[in-house]
Amino acid sequence: MTDSTEPTETGRRARSRVVHGPKRPGTPALEARGLVKHFPVRSGIGRGQAVHAVEDISIALPAGTVTAVVGESGSGKSTLARLLTGLIKPTAGEVLLDGERVGTSARERRKYTNSVHLVLQDPFSSLNAVHTVRYHLERPLKLHTKLNRAQRLQRIQELLERVSLTPATTYIDKYPHELSGGQRQRIAIARGLAVGPRVLLADEPVSMLDVSIRLGVLNLMDDLRRDENLATMYVTHDIASARYLADCIVVMYAGQVVESGPAEKITDEPTHPYTQLLLSAAPDPAREETPVLKGSGAPPSLVTPPPGCRFHPRCPMAMKVCTQRVPEPLAVGADHVSACWLHASGLSAEERQPWPGRADQVGALAVGAAAVSGVAGAAGAGAETK
Amino acid sequence: MTFAVNGQAFSNSARSALSNDPVLEVSGLCVDYGLGKDAVRAVTDANLTLRRGEVLGIAGESGSGKSTLAYALTRLLRAPGVITGGDVLFHSRSVETGEITTVDLLAADAHELRQYRWAEIAVVFQSAMHALNPVARVENQLTDVLRVHRPDMSAAQRRERAVEMLNMVGINADRLRSYPHELSGGMRQRVMIAMALVLRPQVVIMDEPTTALDVVTQREILEELMTLRDTLGFAVVFITHDLSLLIELADSIAIMYAGRIVEQAPAAELFHAPRHPYSLGLLSSFPSLHGERVRMEGIPGAPPSLSSIPSGCTFHPRCRYAMDRCTTQEPPLARPTDEGGGRVAACWLQDGRQAPPPELARKFPPAAVSGPSASDLSRSTS
């Protein structure tokens, strides 16, 4: 690790300037600056080292927007959501609510949990099986508000209607096992809305649900963005649903943001090879031709991440420079950044040489300069090639 | 690999001479859970035909009976599941002579079943984590099957075969000595596939084989599976709730709702021209990767409980085209009156007494010309 520390440090200073997420005027509801999370490895292989789960991520969530965070498992997207809730403490970096640093006192922590709520993936285990819907929704009201019993009941009924569980009286005294998965996830969202939060962090809220139910929950989140002016972060591995719901998509790989920009831009004109890989793997019935998987393999170990660009061992376009230096996020369009050397200008011909470990290079003897520029051009819109 | 060459030859002959030759025929299959008054019907009158080398997809929401159907036709159903009617015919073709013997799987006794299970009909289960034995090495789990079904093979031959199978699914031979917990989710699922194929079955039933995997791993495994299908010539029953994936993968698709098959059609026809409102609803539940972003509404409501199935058409409480007739009479699974193809749908809108709404009356292919098989267009490998 020691030899790769230096480029990482330079990369970090440069990258902190880029804030991902939808661009809106004013102060975002929730903002993270330079978040880093390293989990220490305490036993087994790699003891004494750290899992580099999240590396220097700055993200802004303005009110009334949905930001989707997309990536494979192990990309650090759930860790990012948990860092934003304050459930785990960042190794470095800070979280700002309405532009103010979140303090550590109990009062400030309570105010923060009041405003930022997390919806978990599994509605089967995130609700307590021995308590009714009423209990689940009343609990945050008891803890965070001074409403009396009658007001609480009224608020619970409003909440159930808000998440389309009507009439409320048929649901209020049910236990979680009496509800379907979609209904349970609605209860989890209603619980999140109970105390009027400003920010909703949804960690794979629909991936355990049936297809016909998924859309209902996605549409509910869409309504909440509009009606409650919520700042929502939607964590998912399903890039098609991210395109459907989100204003902005942030693509994560191995703890880093590799590309971010307006949702349709990301899916229609992906500029990072990893985004292209994700898109080529996503099911798409409208696809006419046989999909070609653009890359292979599995995400790397985050204990000893690859030097340079962390995606280079899987990248079909890897160049020499990718194995040596961490790519900085480069603007490739309006509000669209991509951390890929393909978009960098001023690289030497030597640095643009294809990486010998690349799938199509193993066994190939000579590669002309024309092929190299062809590769760079294939990256799509915004590629600044010489 | 001489074996692959042989496999290729086999597949070519399978494609040309026997492409329409059914390997598994299910007719009128009914499955109940429980007995007597408390019984609930999980599968009602299922009719399916699987042809050699074909991928037949079964899609539906959870609780629609798709897994029950798969377990019933392999006779793996556990109590309280009871098969209450129907036939499952397996047309086994001998590798040496090409002779076809038909077996009634529902009437077969334990000895006969043992002969066909895994050797001719193998299953890949949903959760590789739970389906593999956590305290046995990959090698033992792979060779176990051979020890039982191929008693004349020596230990060295069995091991050689295990290595060959692992290579086929893209796993290095040094993984033979690994335990399942030492493998990633994708590798475990690959081991499951290798195990299912080790005896060269004619039919492989896959119950949500890639649901728990990442999209990239899922795509890699499915590509490998389709390549293996082309070389080995087995037929696949692919069960999943992900219709968007199935459309790319399958040759024909059966949609299940509340224990009944409500529509069956070639994959591309189902995608471009669904005839049942439920299929249309499922298709409009998947956000698209292209085009204008529009709000989609999907299907209102939730699937019915099997203990209180609605009268008439089981889908009518959620159907926005429901007519009076739908609440009392159950529509038969029949060919839409304006269709000449091999597709069927269980909907009163398609019986010719009224014009179906335009979104349920699309034609595929639009120009109605005979050309390459429609399903070839959207298969992930060809």
The major sheet of chain A is characterized as: 8 strands, mixed
- Structural class, judged by helices and strands of chain A? alpha/beta
Structural class of chain B: alpha/beta
Q: Classify the helix fraction of chain A into a percent range.
A: 25-40%
* Uncertain spans of chain B: 1-18, 368-382
Approximate strand percentage of chain A:
15-25%
Most extensive chain interface and residues per partner: A-B, 46 and 43 residues
The number of helical runs of chain A is 13
Quick structural gist:
By secondary structure, chain A is of the alpha/beta class. Chain A has helices at 2-15, 77-85, 106-115, 133-144, 149-162, 168-171, 181-193, 211-227, 239-245, 263-268, 273-281, 349-352, 369-377; strands at residues 30-40, 50-61, 65-70, 92-97, 100-101, 116-119, 199-203, 231-236, 248-253, 256-262, 330-333, 336-338.
What does this structure look like?
Chain A has 386 residues and is of the alpha/beta class. Chain A contains 13 helices and 12 strands. The longest helix of chain A has 17 residues, at 211-227. Mean pLDDT of chain A is 83; it is low at 1-15 and 363-386. Chain B has 382 residues and is of the alpha/beta class. In chain B, 31% of the residues lie in helices and 20% in strands. Chain B contains 12 helices and 11 strands. Chain B has a 7-stranded mixed beta sheet, sandwiched between helices. In chain B, strands 2-1-4-5 form a 4-stranded antiparallel beta sheet, with helices on one face. Mean pLDDT of chain B is 84; it is low at 1-18 and 368-382. The A-B interface holds A 72-73, 180-183, 210-216, 218-219, 222, 237-241, 243-245, 263-264, 267-268, 277-288, 290-291, 293, 295-296, 298 and B 61-62, 184, 186, 214-220, 223, 241-245, 247-248, 271, 281-283, 285-290, 293, 295-299, 302-303, 377-382.
Itemize the secondary structure elements and their pairings.
The complex is a heterodimer of chains A (386) and B (382).
Chain A (H helix, E strand, L loop, with lengths): L1 H14 L14 E11 L9 E12 L3 E6 L6 H9 L6 E6 L2 E2 L4 H10 E4 L13 H12 L4 H14 L5 H4 L9 H13 L5 E5 L7 H17 L3 E6 L2 H7 L2 E6 L2 E7 H6 L4 H9 L48 E4 L2 E3 L10 H4 L16 H9 L9
Helix pairs in contact in A: 4-5, 4-7, 7-8
Chain B lengths: L1 H16 L4 E12 L6 E12 L3 E5 L6 H8 L7 E13 L6 E5 L5 H7 L4 E4 L3 H4 L6 H12 L5 H14 L16 H13 L5 E5 L7 H18 L2 E6 L2 H7 L2 E6 L2 E7 H6 L4 H7 L40 H5 L15 E2 L37
Parallel strand pairs in B: 3-8, 3-9, 6-7, 7-8
Antiparallel strand pairs in B: 1-2, 1-4, 4-5, 9-10, 10-11
Helix pairs in contact in B: 5-6, 6-7, 7-8
